Amino acid sequence: MLNKKDSSIEISQPFRGISKLSRTVDYFVTSHSVFAFTFASVSLLYPQAFSLFCKTPIISDSVTSDCIRLSSPFIFGFALFAYKSLRFPNEVRYEIAQVFAVSVSLATLVYLFVQGLGRWNNLLLLNSGVFAYVGFGYGIIVYAFGKKAFDREGSGTDDEKERFLKYMTSMV
User: Fold this and answer.
1) Terminal C-alpha separation, the chain
2) What's the CA gap between 170 and 148, in Å, rounded?
3) Which is nearest to 51 in space by CA: 37, 41, 62, 38?
């Protein structure tokens, strides 16, 4: 179960922890990574897809499309950072989750702000909902469970996993 990354740090493998809570967190982080990678790919390759959320069309050859494309490397960075964090030590994963909790929650607030500007249709709320779900999930992991959520060696109990799942499904 343990894989030595170097002579001084042992890191357990994702999805193989004794703690069911840590495995649930691994699945959550993986889903965040997949969502962010997909979002970044659409942003880079087909930015006009965001017309779905906009009251006016976004054309490929526009400043709007350029801005969407310019954001894609940062979104790819979030996706890859989330993915790579699965193999980081528990303490580092906790710190990264704090950053994601704050930044994705901030993104949700920005979504809600721009929704109020009148340039976006109500479908933007679906996109906002995904960001809210990810931000809320990281917030629950960090603030309700703390560092033990990342401990694959057993400090997270089945009751804590059930409590996390209850929090997350209450949003749906």
Assistant:
1) 34
2) 22
3) 62
Euclidean distance between CA atoms 153 and 7, whole angstroms: 19
Give the pLDDT score at 168.
67
Tokens 């990678």 belong to which residue?
37
Best CA proximity match to 20, nearest among 144, 137, 155: 155
Q: Whose structure tokens read 């990354």?
A: 5
Q: Which of 111, 101, 110, 85 is nearest to 136 (CA)?
A: 101
Distances (CA, A) of 66 to 43, 52, 72, 147: 10, 17, 10, 40
Q: What is the number of other CB atoms lying within 10 angstroms of the CB of residue 96?
A: 19
Q: Which of 143, 134, 161 is nearest to 18 (CA)?
A: 161
Q: pTM value?
A: 0.83
Instruction: Tell me the per-residue pLDDT of 154-172, one tens digit each, with 9 for 90 and over.
Output: 755 566 666 666 766 676 5
- Residues of the chain predicted below pLDDT 50: 1-2, 4, 7-8
pLDDT of residue 11: 61
Which pLDDT belongs to residue 65?
97
Q: What gap in Å lies between CA 101 and CA 32, rounded to an integer?
A: 12
